[in-house]
Amino acid sequence: MSFSLAIVGRPNVGKSTLFNRLVGRRLALVDDQPGVTRDLREGEAKLGDLRFTVIDTAGLEEATDESLQGRMRKLTERAVDMADICLFMIDARAGVLPADEVFADILRKRAKHVILAANKAEGQAGESGLLEAFSLGLGEPLRLSAEHGEGMPDLYAVLQPLAEEF
Ligand code: GDP
Ligand code: MG
């Protein structure tokens, strides 16, 4: 049995970095510069003995006439509707920003299962952001460092019981 996991959150929090780590091949582009990744990208993820489909959301980096907020909402809603589980990522170093609250709202209303993850939390840098994340009302945040591969066993521990439902 398998499930799908959508990684959602505002640009630059580290979604594609986690996607690439789970997929093990560089299917999604990661870049410091805006405008590199587009829309939705799917890959086959492997985490311990779990195999699932992972969906990376992008496309928010691009400047178009439509507002970022509007595109963010549409794209996130598409990903949320496609996926069994959503991993909502914030940047633990930046803390909770107004855009994160917009995502949290969409997810609270629409997602079947939400996993809250505070990324870039290697070392002590993410401590205050991790605490702020509780205020999103989506439960206890998972402490991740997608770039350094920290927090993967905790992600496994959260996904494993959910995987059994699908
Ligand atoms: P996305 O826009 O959400 O897909 O974010 P990306 O995966 O493209 O990452 C944006 C930037 O954050 C890149 O420069 C990454 O190298 C960096 N990044 C991603 N994960 C981490 C992390 O765990 N720690 C730190 N310090 N930087 C990270
Ligand atoms: Mg990306």
UniProtKB/TrEMBL annotation:
Binding sites annotated in the UniProt record for GTP 1: 9-16, 56-60, 119-122
**Domain of life, source organism:** Bacteria
Q: Which residues form the EngA-type G domain?
A: 3-166
Please explain the role this protein plays, according to its UniProt record: GTPase that plays an essential role in the late steps of ribosome biogenesis.
UniProt record similarity statement: Belongs to the TRAFAC class TrmE-Era-EngA-EngB-Septin-like GTPase superfamily. EngA (Der) GTPase family.
Subunit description: Associates with the 50S ribosomal subunit.
Stated name of the protein: GTPase Der
The record lists the lineage as:
Bacteria, Pseudomonadati, Pseudomonadota, Alphaproteobacteria, Rhodobacterales
Which gene does this sequence derive from? der
Q: Which residues of the full protein are shown?
A: 1 to 166 of 505
